[in-house]
Amino acid sequence: MNHTGHALAAPPRQPRPSSNGQCARAEAIENSLLAAVPRKEYRRLAAGLEAVSLTFGEVLYEPGEAIRHVYFPNKSLISLLTLADGHLALEVGLIGREGMVGIPLVLGHTVSSVRALVQGSGMAMRMGAARFRKEFRLSLPLQREVYRYTHSLMAQISQTAACNRFHVVETRLARWLLMTHDRVKSDEFRMTHEFLSHMLGVRRVGVTKAAHALQQRKLISYHRGDITVLDRAGLEAAACECYEVVKDMHDGAQARVPGPSSPTPPRKGNGSADLHRNDDGMNSETNSRAEVQGAAGDSGQQDAS
Asked: Which domains, ranges and CATH numbers included, belong to the chain?
């Protein structure tokens, strides 16, 4: 990724097959969705799965392009980005070992509506789109798990949209770091200010201020793109409650998801962070309160911003 951020628009590159060339069935089942499928069903699926190595910055799909493969991340992390004006990107979904990339196929669509970008390098299991559609038709257990995950992903996307609209950058950054921490299963990961600005849909200066505030509270260490989670409990307290809605959905958190029209208001007790002006220049605490009330009751109320 260069200083202009153009790497986000790079043409898709083919992920590399694993160097050991081992058959998928010999690998441990690290992906939770695949692990939930009965072993008899998985053995049939394994014949069509290929282990591939995904690299940070790779584009798996672009909007309007045909979906040629589905991916089941193991240690990798995939961001789903929606584009505005053809080039401005905002993350709307995050997929790790709990799920699958290529959900439109199960809904009867063969073309992607989002950019699927590798955010965290690592291994994934890949299957051709035609083979996946065939296996999906044949396997009721696979259908059940994929539909369950689809519901979770839709809930994550809707909650993320509400969070991006109503919550200040610091609490959103804390939520995003926690979601990443859950999926990479490590206290350390790498993420540049520029990449974070795309993920959160804010200017780099907004990311810098939010990251500095979290560092001042000794919740994270952040130096030249290297992030270390120092205080997990403190980071959870700093995050908006949207995190509780979307965390570990493969473990059943989706049952607690509220309706998309009811975004969770910012937590109290985050010090001056709740009064910081966001990157659009609004006083987020004042506007969020008025807008949440308007969204919940009077749709005709004047926008507080």
From this structure: 14-161 (2.60.120.10), 167-296 (1.10.10.10)
